[in-house]
Amino acid sequence: MPPALKALVAQLVGFGLMTSTLVFGLMPADQPLALMVFQAGVAAAASLALRADNWWIPIHLAFAPALFFATRLGLHPAWYLVGFVLLLLIYGSSFRTQVPLFLSNRDTARVVAELLPAGRSIAMVDLGSGTGRLLRILAVQRPESRFVGIESAPVPYLISRLAARSLPNCSMRRGDFWQAKFAEFDVVYAFLSPVPMPRLWRKLKTEMRPGSLLISNSFPVPEAAPERVVDVGDRRGTRLYLYRI
What are the structural domain ranges in the chain? Predict the structure, then answer.
């Protein structure tokens, strides 16, 4: 069952049991917050039963109570529509790709720059490049090399495109990186999630030249031993996993 469908089923189970408690008089209707908390707990339990990823649990626990407090704000409904559209433009592809929007920090960019092959021009691609900050830092430090970002979300892509317009060796592409071909690249950088890593590794082994490098931020490839693991030393404890094709 796809993760998004599991989340929907968990929420429906939660609201279904909450409605049942009202119908049979097991909970008072004049305590809506208690009802929402009950629904959240049931939805979280259903998510566990469906074996959804653990990061869905806090989402289920917060969803119904957040709806309750949102109704108390007295905002015009149009504001909720605006918020929904903005979230869709920024995070809309996450349900399909199962990859949240992660942004690489400056410390990570510094360490990645030290890991890149030296003494020659290289081509590097960032999968799910977000706002493109990491690539812009690298493009300035390595003007002889070429850096490409692939981002599917419209707003981060637009930001990255505008921010990189003055860098001739840094380009941004909007699209699905699963449709891209990687034979032209020496280095692939990925800050994705645990879900796509096995499939990505198989794709890179098929398409990239021997000796090419995968740098994965935070998420190792389950079926392969990294050539090297590098601790960035930042506050979030970032680790980079290096795999040689």
Answer: 3-74, 106-244
The burial class, CB within 10 Å (0-12 / 13-18 / 19+), for 187 is buried
What is the DSSP track for 45-77?
Answer: HHHHHTT--TTHHHHHHHHHHHHHHHHTS---H
> To which H or E segment does residue 172 belong?
strand 170-174
Residue-wise pLDDT tens digits, 32-42:
888 899 999 99
- Distance CA(30)–CA(28), nearest Å, equals 5
CATH domain 106-244 topology: Rossmann fold (3.40.50)
Q: Locate tokens 């469908």: which residue?
A: 5
pTM score: 0.70
Segment 148-166 shows an average pLDDT of 91
Residue length of the chain: 245
The string of pLDDT tens digits covering residues 128-137 is 888 999 999 9
- Rounded to the nearest integer, the mean pLDDT of the chain is 88
Contact 222, 206 (CB under 8 A): no
**Across the beta sheet with 170-174, what order do the strands follow?**
170-174, 146-151, 123-127, 187-190, 213-217, 239-244, 228-231
